[in-house]
Write a structure and sequence with these properties.
Mean pLDDT: 90
Shape: globular
Helix content: 40-55%
CATH architecture of the largest domain: 3-Layer(aba) Sandwich
CATH class of the largest domain: Alpha Beta
CATH superfamily of the largest domain: Periplasmic binding protein-like II
Number of strands: 11
Low-confidence stretches: 1-23
Number of domains: 2
Order of helices and strands: HEHEHEHEEEHEHEHEHEHEHHHHH
Number of helices: 14
CATH topology of the largest domain: D-Maltodextrin-Binding Protein, domain 2
Distance between the termini: 49 Å
Radius of gyration: 21 Å
Strand content: 15-25%
Structural class: alpha/beta
Length: 299
Amino acid sequence: MKLNLTSAAKVAATTYLALKHLQVMKLQIGYSPCPNDTFIFDAMVHGKVDTEGLTFEPILEDVEELNARAFAKTYPVTKLSYHALAHLQHSYRLLDAGSALGEGIGPLLIAKSPLSSKQVSAASIAIPGKFTTAAFLFRLAYPEASDLRPIIFNEIEPSISKDEVAAGVIIHENRFTYAERGFELIQDLGSFWESETGLPIPLGGIVVRRDLPQEEQLKIARVLRRSVDFAMANPQSSSEYVAMHAQEMSEEIQYKHIQTYVNEYSVSLGERGRAAVRGMFEMAVEKRIIEGVAEDLFV
């Protein structure tokens, strides 16, 4: 028998279906294939923690590609560089968990042979993307340098070896292996930031698009925190997923990578972590890189 729904019943039915859809909503989530990201996201994308009805479609891309996607507002949830977020505060809010901050974990400027500050400022420098935090820190340390060349992070060392650039800013696992390949450390850009500010260096964070309902933003924040907590309590649970995306990285380097970039700030930014993020953005305002700092930056 065909039901004849009244207008009120139709509205109620439509609302119910919309809410039901919301409960099983699949969200695209962008993050990098680096061990720290696959480590912290494994539990939530594979249903190892309570996701409160959400399911996730992971998209794994290089950090500068993620930055570009963020400018296009492609993913509702994404990892991005804090430098990129400084420009995207009108589109995204920062989640409390999942960030990469800390002391002694910043990008490194390397070359084949020692270079003075004057030589660096006049040289061609490879950076791992225009909107990476690495590029921002390099500009702070060497404000007079002008020949900056964005190159995908794993091609920077080969570019230096071939003399295509004089030096390069390296990130990720390369910071653990550059010396054994014969490169010289010119400047630890993370240490430069710490000496200038006394704050941990904000590298990358996890954000949600502002057009998501507030309830959904808070839900995603809770799920991500559970995922990080699960990863910290069960470090071997993600080992297969981490190794799957770690390319040719050895297990030892995978472990070092996770130990370096996943820490107390990944669990929760806390007051000190938030101060570091605001400090970076306020410095960007002073240098006229951005216009201001959003009042409601944090979820």
